[in-house]
Amino acid sequence: MNYVKNAFLCLAAVVALAIFSPAAADAAGEVLSLPAPDKSGGKPLMQALNERKSSRAFKDDAIPPQQLSNLLWAAFGVNRPDGRHTAPTARNSQQVRIYAAMANGVWLYDPARHALVKVLDRNATSNFKAPLTLVYAVTDEKFGPMHAGAIFQNVGLYCASAGLANVVKAQGVDVFEGKELKLPAEYRIVIVQSVGFPK
């Protein structure tokens, strides 16, 4: 009986990942696999909370691949076998798309594969004056901004723990048109979060 139950749960997780993977429709783009996230270390939670702050002054240095991996996993990575994430969503909708705007293009984060899928082949750092800007797109008018808020708080705490600077802002939500990012019709950009090494 337990074997059947476990098999059913595994199948349900696979189906959930297939359904909720935001990059499923973007599979044609270049895929950049991220290193496995390092889930150990970092500063204690209370110290990270004490050091969490906003900063708009960033060095031009790119975020190294391992830190980028850790940051995106902290943001909205899969942290349970059933496909659920590091940040909550109402009714487990998981309808959040996170775009990473960097010098080598704009990429859609695919939590199921822990990978980035390129959606735009141009340097987007000058738009935000930061080496990395996360662009949050959501669907639900009532719960969507709440979902984005849970995610950008995860990012802010990771940055405090890892010695990175970050700022959350509404300025910049109109940098990309929906068609340019290939946003599905029901999605809209609600907030952006710039990240980098502090100046």
Task: Tell me what you see in this structure.
This protein is of the alpha+beta class and 199 residues long. The protein has one domain: 3-Layer(aba) Sandwich (NADH Oxidase), CATH 3.40.109. It has five helices and seven strands. Helix 2 (45-51) packs across helix 5 (144-162) and helix 3 packs antiparallel against helix 5. The longest helix is centred in the N-terminal third of the chain and has 19 residues, at 2-20. It is globular, with a radius of gyration of 17 Å. The chain starts with a helix and ends with a strand. Mean pLDDT is 86; it is low at 2-21 and 23-27.
Using brief descriptors, characterize the structure shown.
NADH Oxidase, 199 residues, 7 strands, 31% helix, alpha+beta, globular, seven-stranded antiparallel β-sheet
Helix content: 25-40%
Label the overall shape.
globular
Number of domains: 1
Structural class per helix/strand content?
alpha+beta
Q: Mean of residue pLDDT?
A: 86
Report the β-strand fraction as a percent range: 15-25%
Strand tally is 7
